[in-house]
Structures are given as structure tokens and as C-alpha cells.
């Protein structure tokens, strides 16, 4: 029988965000870096104006585009926060509440900022 | 308060003594680069929300040689993250049973890497069609 007062762990939530972000960054990370950071800036391979203001604004106003941008930014950061937080121990930093707040707090703040900007950009 | 200061063996650099742990630390560190890239994108999103001039300023910043050099490093490190993510996946996934047989580790790793290649090609094709 379960104890009535048994506290449920919040670990599965952070583990789930880690797994989702790790998977998303494994599948989409390299190609996104190539497109946004190398091909478009250098005018390599991809069509000119692939990331022009009207195109990106339309992309961020489209429901699918909006969801994609949000998922990439938020989940990449939740994944990284979780992994960095758990790696601190390996380099001799006994991570306490402060490290937790910095790691997960920056992911949380970025998630809120991304959601806010995407909402303000409209549909 | 006790004045005793018992000897505690130092754990500094423990991971350097074994190639397995060196690789472990390298693949854990890829998270720093994933985070850095996500922050670059977050800044881009904020600039997009501020209007056309701000967005074009962000695009200009991405054209600087320093930025391109950073993104070449991001590409290499995040591609390595992709590789290790799928190499570890047979251990992190619960056993998958298809037709009474457990799916082997090679199939899971290979399938994941193939999926990453397909996703990359589809993304490039989508960018082509957008224009």
C-alpha cells in the first residue's frame, strides 16, 4: 500500500525535458547550426534571403514555425541545463541550490522570454 | 569544533586516468555548446520581435568572421553530440521488442544516425523550397 504522505519526485519532469532536448538537438542541432550560422551568413549553398525579415517573421507567425522555434530554444536549454548541472559533481563542484537555480533558472527564464516574444509576434 | 583535518584523497582530474571517462567528460561538455547555440537563437528571436532593423543587425552579426568561426566549432561539437547520443541510446532506452526479438544496439544506433541524416536533408530541402 502506498503511504499517503509519500512525496512524488520531480525528477521525471527534468529527466523528460533532458531526453526530449537531447533528442531534438541530436536530430536538428547540426543542420540548424549549418543553416543559421554558416550557410546563410556566408551565402553558401542556400538561396539568398533565406532568412530575410519577411520570411522569418512569417515563419514565427505560422503555428508550426512558432512551435518549432519554441521547442528548439526551450528544449535545447533544458537539456543543457540538466546535463551541466549533473556534470558539476564530476569536476568537484558539489552543486547545491545555487547551481540548481543558475542552471534550471536560466533555462526557465529563456523559456519564458521565448514564449513571450513568440506570443507578441502574433499569429 | 574539532581541529582535526583528516586526509581526503584528491579527486582532481580523476577522469583523465581512463579513456572511457575522458570521452564521457567530452560528451557531457557538448551541452555547453548546445546551450551557447540556443542563446544565439534566443537573441535572434528577441531581435526578430524588435523589428526589421534589429533583425538585420543580428544577421549582420552572424556574418562576422568570429561568429562564423564559432558556428563551425558549434557544428563539429553538436555533430559529435548527435553521434554520442545515438551511441548511448541502446543503454538509455528500455528494451524494444519487435516480433518477439529485442532490437539490437547496432540497429538503434544506426537508426538514430540515419534519422539525423534524413532530418538534415529534409531541413535543407525545406529551406530551398521556402524561397
Mind explaining what this structure looks like?
The complex is a heterodimer of chains A (123) and B (131). Chain A is mostly helical and 123 residues long. Chain A contains 4 helices and no strands. Chain A has a single domain, classed as 3 helical TM bundles of succinate and fumarate reductases (Up-down Bundle). Chain B is mostly helical and 131 residues long. Chain B has a single domain, classed as 3 helical TM bundles of succinate and fumarate reductases. A two-stranded antiparallel ribbon of chain B has the order 1-2. In chain B, strand 1 and strand 2 form a beta hairpin. In chain B, helix 1 packs antiparallel against helix 2. At the A-B interface, helix 1, helix 2, helix 3 and helix 4 of A face helix 1, helix 2, helix 3 and helix 4 of B.
Mean pLDDT of chain B: 91
Distance between the first and last residues' Cα of chain A: 50 Å
Examine the secondary-structure arrangement and name the CATH architecture of chain A: Up-down Bundle
What is the total tally of β strands of chain B? 2
**CATH homologous superfamily placement of chain A:** Fumarate reductase/succinate dehydrogenase, transmembrane subunit
- Rg over C-alpha atoms of chain A, rounded to the nearest angstrom: 18 Å
Give the structural class of chain B: mainly alpha
Taking pLDDT < 50 over at least 5 consecutive residues as the criterion, the unreliable ranges of chain A are none
Q: Would you give the CATH topology of chain A?
A: 3 helical TM bundles of succinate and fumarate reductases
Main β sheet profile of chain B: 2 strands, antiparallel
Task: Return the CATH class of chain B.
Answer: Mainly Alpha
Widest beta sheet: strand line-up of chain B = 1-2
Please indicate the percent range of residues of chain A in DSSP E strands (runs of 2 or more).
Answer: under 5%
Amino acid at each position: 500500500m502506498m503511504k499517503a504522505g509519500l512525496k512524488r519526485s520531480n525528477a521525471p519532469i527534468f529527466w523528460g525535458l533532458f531526453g526530449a532536448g537531447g533528442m531534438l538537438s541530436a536530430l536538428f542541432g547540426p543542420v540548424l547550426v549549418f543553416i543559421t550560422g554558416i550557410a546563410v551568413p556566408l551565402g553558401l549553398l542556400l538561396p539568398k534571403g533565406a532568412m530575410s525579415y519577411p520570411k522569418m517573421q512569417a515563419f514565427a507567425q505560422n503555428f508550426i514555425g512558432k512551435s518549432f522555434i519554441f521547442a528548439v530554444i526551450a528544449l535545447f536549454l533544458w537539456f543543457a541545463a540538466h546535463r551541466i548541472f549533473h556534470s558539476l559533481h564530476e569536476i568537484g563542484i558539489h552543486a547545491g541550490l545555487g547551481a540548481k537555480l543558475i542552471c534550471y533558472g536560466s533555462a526557465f527564464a529563456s523559456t519564458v522570454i521565448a514564449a513571450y516574444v513568440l506570443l507578441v509576434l502574433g499569429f | 569544533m574539532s581541529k582535526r583535518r583528516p586526509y581526503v584523497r584528491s579527486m582532481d582530474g580523476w577522469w583523465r586516468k581512463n579513456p572511457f571517462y575522458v570521452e564521457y567528460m567530452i560528451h557531457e561538455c557538448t551541452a555547453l555548446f548546445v546551450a551557447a547555440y540556443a542563446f544565439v537563437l534566443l537573441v535572434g528571436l528577441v531581435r526578430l520581435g524588435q523589428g526589421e532593423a534589429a533583425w538585420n543587425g543580428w544577421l549582420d552579426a552572424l556574418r562576422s568572421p568570429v561568429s562564423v568561426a564559432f558556428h563551425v566549432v558549434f557544428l563539429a561539437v553538436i555533430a559529435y553530440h548527435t553521434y554520442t547520443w545515438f551511441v548511448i541510446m541502446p543503454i538509455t532506452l528500455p528494451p524494444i521488442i519487435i516480433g518477439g526479438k529485442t532490437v539490437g544496439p547496432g540497429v538503434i544506433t544506426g537508426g538514430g544516425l540515419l534519422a539525423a541524416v534524413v532530418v538534415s536533408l529534409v531541413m535543407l530541402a525545406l529551406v530551398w523550397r521556402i524561397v
